[in-house]
Amino acid sequence: MDKSSLIGVILGLIAVFIGMVLKGVPITALVNPAAFLIIILGTIAAVTIAFPSSELKRVPQLFGILFKEKKLLGVEELIPMFSNWATIARKEGLLALEVKVAEVDDPFLKNGLSMAVDGQSAEFIRDVMTEELEAMEDRHLSGASIFSQAGTYAPTLGVLGAVVGLIAALGHMDDTNALGEAIAAAFVATLLGIFTGYVLWHPFANKLKQKSKQEIKIKEVMIEGVLSVLEGQSPRAIEQKLSMYLSNKDREKVLTEGEMIDG
């Protein structure tokens, strides 16, 4: 479970509801079926028009990504792994890593190491792994753009809902009380549009982009690690090379641990 996504949604709801209460607005004012219909169904309709069905089918999966924490190998875990593989490859040859291929769970890394053991060239391995990485990045950006577009459409539909509500309100010009209630109800659509757009859809899109960046970074480390082992670089050189993907604090820690092991 990705707690930050869940906590963010809960805090957003609390902020709106408590804010309404503090402003003296009754929560029952949100019970407006017409506003929900225009904003929710309208946003779904706009997104459906904007994207092909092949991409829309991935929306349930995207929600899963948002609220589930995907287990990824960290750079701190990959560095000693590649260092160990480099030691084995330098002593016993690349074919000795064939046993290690079966132990790798990550499909991307497993494919890269398998190609190295099979004797493929560094250029071929880099091309294949890079193309796979770029294809993955395109899929991730496509998924994020669905929520990004929803965040653009929702506030505008909120204005549309307010206009529709104001048109209805004009029919009560002879009744001041009814006119006031109708105008208040008209702006519920605007509230829902802004809330869903800027508290849900746009943040969801950004979250997907950030998760994509993290995964891309890990896979870039995997590419460099596989190629470094293939090229016969020393374990120490691999540690120094891959530690560049870490912060200064984590880099010092990893390199210090590597020195202790070497020693």
Structure description:
Helix content is 80%, strand content 0%. It has helices at 3-22, 33-50, 53-56, 59-67, 75-92, 98-101, 107-117, 122-169, 176-230, 235-242, 248-262. Helix 5 (75-92) packs parallel to helix 9 and helix 5 (75-92) runs antiparallel to helix 10 (235-242). The two termini are 40 Å apart. The mean pLDDT is 89.
Can I get a quick summary?
80% of the residues lie in helices and 0% in strands. It is an all-alpha fold and 263 residues long.
Helix/strand order: HHHHHHHHHHH
Largest sheet: none
Total strands: the figure is: 0
Give the averaged pLDDT, no decimals. Answer: 89
Shape: elongated
Strand content: under 5%
Count the DSSP helices.
Answer: 11
What Rg is obtained from the alpha carbons, in whole angstroms? 27 Å
Main attributes of the structure:
263 residues, mainly alpha, 11 helices, elongated
